[in-house]
Amino acid sequence: MVLAATNRPTDLDEAILRRFSQSFEIGKPSLSDRTKIFKVVLKGERIEDNVDFDRLAGLCEGYTGSDILEACKLAAFIPLREYLHDEKKGKQSQAPRPLSQSDLETALAQSKKTKITARKPAVVSFRLDDYEDLD
What we know:
With 135 residues, this protein is mainly α.
């Protein structure tokens, strides 16, 4: 079995598309889905108790799960940079502070959502038996 994925289906050559027996579109996540994605991505991370996942999800309309993951990675560097900056100045701290709502909102403002070109998915199906006469 071969499984392929792309955010740019219109850039794929028709000859490639013909070789897949099926294709289907997975749309962008809903508000509820984006909230869940934030919770999954940030599970196990040190975050402040007042992080509002619903607000964050509302700020990233049109983002893919991958876009949200990248924004969270950007946000994670904010407390780390502060920690390293403070350490250079001689301030002692056990660890970087927890990730805050502000960090996540800043990262979302700096990040970009994936541009996905809408295309009606084609469903192509063939069987090798249909080509027996090619021997």
